[in-house]
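Appendix C: a fully annotated inverse folding record. The material below is reproduced so that readers can follow the format used throughout the book. The structure is listed first as tokens, followed by the designed sequence.
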């Protein structure tokens, strides 16, 4: 149910440097409000990597964020992530929010990548119209080149959600569901509120944002070596792309500060098996649902 391939914390983001993980038994999934507890060895390893990347390099990474993601998609094309066929299973709102059968549903996929979530949704549900955007112009072009892409059912556009106004592409309060899946973690934590503020403008009152991303102490967080830390729970990979690991408290405060109501906010803990290397690693994700109030006060 999580990202089908796990990027190593300190290696380039190419397919040859990716650890493939296998789907695991659903019985191994646990949800709750408690973060994963580190072993003494894990805590020691994490403590050793507390030195921060220099301010000069941090500014350079922020300035080159779009370029680094564009290069990521240039290297990996559409082959890095597997299609996400689990979204309607994990988020029943994608089906249950309709008031009658066959009701048209308008969604916004914020950070669509090359369409790994978008196209399975459009295939599964013929009554969905989707707006989709991504930071990377190259990723947007890959979406448009997909044989399943149809302008009648999907409008895709390039957008920096921290700077570009979504109202240039999406009518105000026209969207029933926003998906924010493995996207916010790639954005500097100081700018995450700008994304939520931008999304708020196009979301209908009473409708929701569906969130899933990396959780605190996920295995990927523990793989980063010294010299990769940018800020608390925020790291840079060797290819220049960045990843934040969310705590339940931080995510709750982030959404509430922008006027959303929290409906759900849980850690999802799983054990992922790499049968090839005979490894079992702990994955931690944060999954939430945050609603725009039905009426403004």
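Designed amino acids, in order:
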């Amino acid at each position: 149910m999580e990202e089908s391939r796990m990027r190593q914390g300190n290696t380039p983001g190419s397919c040859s440097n990716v650890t493939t993980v296998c789907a695991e038994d659903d019985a191994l999934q646990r949800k709750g409000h408690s973060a994963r507890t580190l072993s003494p060895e894990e805590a020691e390893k994490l403590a050793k990597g507390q030195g921060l990347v220099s301010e000069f390099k941090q500014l350079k990474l922020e300035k080159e964020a779009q370029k680094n993601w564009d290069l990521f998609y240039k290297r990996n094309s559409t082959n890095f992530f597997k299609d996400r066929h689990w979204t309607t299973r994990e988020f029943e709102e994608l089906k249950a929010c309709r008031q009658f059968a066959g009701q048209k549903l308008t969604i916004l996929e914020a950070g669509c990548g090359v369409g790994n979530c978008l196209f399975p949704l459009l295939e599964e549900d013929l009554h969905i119209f989707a707006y989709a955007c991504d930071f990377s112009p190259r990723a947007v072009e890959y979406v448009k080149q997909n044989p399943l892409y149809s302008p009648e059912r999907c409008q895709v556009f390039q957008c920096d959600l921290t700077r570009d106004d979504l109202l240039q592409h999406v009518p105000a309060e026209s969207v029933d569901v926003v998906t924010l899946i493995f996207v916010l973690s790639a954005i500097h934590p100081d700018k995450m509120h700008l994304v939520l503020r931008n999304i708020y403008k196009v979301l209908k009152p009473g409708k929701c944002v569906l969130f899933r991303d990396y959780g605190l102490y996920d295995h990927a967080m523990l793989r980063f070596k010294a010299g990769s830390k940018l800020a608390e729970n925020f790291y840079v990979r060797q290819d220049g792309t960045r990843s934040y690991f969310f705590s339940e408290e931080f995510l709750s405060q982030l959404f509430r500060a922008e006027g959303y109501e929290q409906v759900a906010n849980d850690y999802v803990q799983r054990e992922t098996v790499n049968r090839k290397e005979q490894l079992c690693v702990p994955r931690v994700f944060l999954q939430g649902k945050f609603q725009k109030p039905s009426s403004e006060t």
